[in-house]
Amino acid sequence: MSRVAMLGMGHLEQCLLIENRSDPHPWGKMNWLRSLRDDHCLGWWEGDELLAISCYTLVLDDVSLLNIVVDKSSRGQGVGRRLLCEGLEWMQQFGGARCLLEVRLSNTVARNLYTQLGFAEDGIRKNYYPLGDGFENAVLMSADLPLAE
Ligand SMILES: CC(C)(COP(=O)(O)OP(=O)(O)OC[C@H]1O[C@@H](n2cnc3c(N)ncnc32)[C@H](O)[C@@H]1OP(=O)(O)O)[C@@H](O)C(=O)NCCC(=O)NCCS
Predict the structure, then answer these.
(1) pLDDT digit string (tens) for 74-103?
(2) 66-90 burial code (b ≥16 CB/10 A, e <16)
(3) Whose CA is closest to 135, among 147, 144, 123, 126?
């Protein structure tokens, strides 16, 4: 049975495991330590198995999506979409009225997901992400909450 639940410092190793095998641009241990301690991190569980993670922070009524990653073996089954929707509903309880995010220009899968959920593109942040020897632009996106699913 699937469930969404808050993650804490005790989940560090599982977060690193999923991200390192599933995200071509992993956060790394220090970012996970800080985020699990300071932010709102939610996990998607099937039974005892953690399959996906998303992390958010809140400034006034702006929610920022900091990270979302679905384990490679569980992609394309609606997990990312449902985790993001539930995560943003969760953040509304704390006063979130809008969600902001940045995504790599080349990340068409994530951009499709966000567009499908009603996120609009607000602009470009040039050379924001490291990429090999150079940098890649970020696309800035936002949506009002609740999402119009
Ligand atoms: C982006 C990510 C979270 C999507 O998770 P997912 O569980 O595979 O996505 P879902 O199955 O919920 O699909 C939701 C939508 O995403 C898009 N999508 C999913 N897989 C796709 C693919 N292979 N090609 C194109 N679009 C795709 C589609 O719009 C899809 O909706 P649809 O099924 O109605 O067409 C996942 O690919 C991931 O973890 N990527 C690596 C980490 C990452 O890039 N995170 C985003 C950082 S900004």
Answers:
(1) 999 999 999 999 999 999 999 999 999 999
(2) bbbbbbeebeeeebbeebbbebbeb
(3) 126
For residues 89 and 63, is the Cβ–Cβ distance under 8 A?
no
**Amino acid identity for residue 137 in this structure:** N
Residue type, 146: P
Q: What is the pTM of this model?
A: 0.96
For atom 4 of ligand 1, the residue with the nearest CA is 80
Q: How far apart are CA 29 and CA 10, in angstroms?
A: 13
| Sign of the torsion formed by the C-alpha atoms of 80, 83, 86 and 92 | negative
CATH class of the domain whose range is 2-144: alpha beta
Closest CA to 104 of 87, 124, 122, 85: 124
Give every CB contact of residue 5 below 8 A, 6+ residues apart in sequence: 42, 43, 45
Could you tell me the distance, in angstroms and rounded to a whole number, from the CA of residue 10 to the centre of ligand 1? 27
* Active site (catalytic) residues: 102, 114
Distance 119 CA to ligand 1 centre (A): 14
